[in-house]
Amino acid sequence: MPLRAVMDTNVLYAGLRSRRGASFQILEALWQRKWTLVLSNTVLTEYEEIVKREATTLGLTFERIHKTLDALCTLAERRYPSDVWLPVLSDPDDEALVHLAVESKADHLISHNLRHLEPARKLGVNLLEPRDFLAILRT
Predict the structure, then answer these.
(1) Tens of pLDDT, residues 100-138
(2) Range of the domain at 113
(3) Quick one: which of 8, 33, 96, 116 has the fewest CB in 10 Å?
(4) Total domain count for the chain?
């Protein structure tokens, strides 16, 4: 069974922005079904908001963005976290990632910003930077 992981928006953004680096390779591995993205509506909405806001920087049309998000949804394990959650982070935008990781029992939460997510470790969330997740995928 492939690894299951929650992916922070900053990893998606980095993977779409450059074909170099671990984030792009993580997206490539996802397209090849080497791991399973765990996704909720809240996280998907954040992906859409950020990627559309940065569309010009990313060199993407809205049509291309929609196709990419549709592809993510097709490959993802869709989850519907409960309404009951006590915040553990200072940034409410990141809270949905931790909530999803905890309730889905995802193997990992991948992010470029582990410092802000650090309190999630106390809830059993395994935080990894993209390069470390990629190293696991390659073993």
Answers:
(1) 999 999 999 999 999 999 999 999 999 999 999 999 999
(2) 3-138
(3) 33
(4) 1
Q: Calculate the alpha carbon distances from 68 to 47, 51, 63, 106, 120 in Å.
A: 10, 10, 9, 22, 28
Q: Are 114 and 91 in contact (CB under 8 A)?
A: no
Q: What are φ and ψ of residue 130, in 5° steps? A: -55, -45
pTM over 0.90: yes
CATH of the domain at 11: 3.40.50.1010
Q: What is the tens place of the pLDDT at every residue in 38-76?
A: 999 999 999 999 999 999 999 999 999 999 999 999 999
Which residues make beta-bridge pairs with 35? 3
